[in-house]
Amino acid sequence: MIERSNRLDHVHSDIRGPLYQEALKMEASGVNVLKLNTGNPGRFGFDLPNSVRQALALHIDEAVPYCDVRGMKDARNVICTYHIGRGLQGIMPNDVFICNGVSEAASMLMNALCGDGDEILLPSPNYSLWSNNVYHCGGKSVFYRCDTNNDWNPDVEDIKSKVTNKTKAIVVINPNNPTGAVYSKETLLEIAAIARENHLVVLADEIYDRLVMDGLRHESFGAIAPDVPCVTFNGLSKSHIVCGFRCGWMVFSGPKGELDEVKNGVMQLASMRLCGNALTQLVIPAALVDSESTQEMIVPGGRLFEQRKVVCEELDGIDGVSYIPNRASFYLFPGLDKDKFDFEDDQDFAMKFLHEKRVLVIPGRGFDWHEDLRFRIVMLPDTDTLRKAMQDLKHFLKEHRK
User: Fold this and answer.
1) Which of these, 30, 42, 95, 319, is most buried using a 10 Å CB contact count?
2) Residues 163-206: pLDDT tens digits?
3) pTM recorded for the entire structure
4) Which of 114, 388, 53 is nearest to 245 (CA)?
């Protein structure tokens, strides 16, 4: 047997891993499973905005040939304008690379930045896209903790303690997946000071910046720390219900010339794959102008707002469950009091919940979290479905109480 690359030894994708495969087997045998494992709005009745539909229909012929390896000019112009509006300084359209989702952008950037033995600081909990790309590049993932006692903001002192002479970058996921946290400006400025002092790149995953609720202001990292080399990642998948379009991008900012070598590396990789999907790039100008379709989901009466409300109300009635309300996106990362239940660990909890109540959630370990027993809920189904799922959780936990 030919062995696979050892660079995959630590790669894991629990969102579509063993629990997900078990759910598929159950479905194949005729069992209905409520899959709360992945943030995929289009699977739960969220509609494609008309602005996106019209842009695709009117401009489809423009997507026939290959486009610029960095992305279509009109799309990069609008992306650049969008991020200038968010506070990024000194950026130009050629600082923008449009990719097949943030997933490809993260992969290309990490391959251009991270070499054998380089250390990348990542949050715990962490969206595994980032840690997996570090492993795949031969680097070392070093996790800093996010603090449950500080609304899931990163623990700045923990970050400081983990910087070494091999550290090359800090990944900041804000708004956060899986916690739904929106980081404070003060915390971001402290992270900027660490990056500045240690000459580190900040990789700012901000794809949920348009899904912030409760009147909070999202601070774009590159805007509040213009003197720190930064790559900002964003896209349309969640805000405009086009996950399958694979439409994401990255923007280079910071001191002039500081990231040129990395950017040239990204250009090499972008050229290898010729160009991103041109069809999806057609909708970017219209989508970024259309904020209404996104905004209506996150205000009182909107789907995301009301679905969060239902989940939190139901969880409030379950003894042994704790949570910090999400302030953005559609994820919640509740904790279970292990002393009150008979689960061996978070994996045992999730597998039993799947088998007994036919609800799929992802345990905390899938997000590189090991401090206590947690799991991520994707709050995308309609309110009635979510209410029933949380009531099923309540009954399930009652049956497993010590």
Assistant:
1) 95
2) 999 999 999 999 999 999 999 999 999 999 999 999 999 999 99
3) 0.94
4) 53
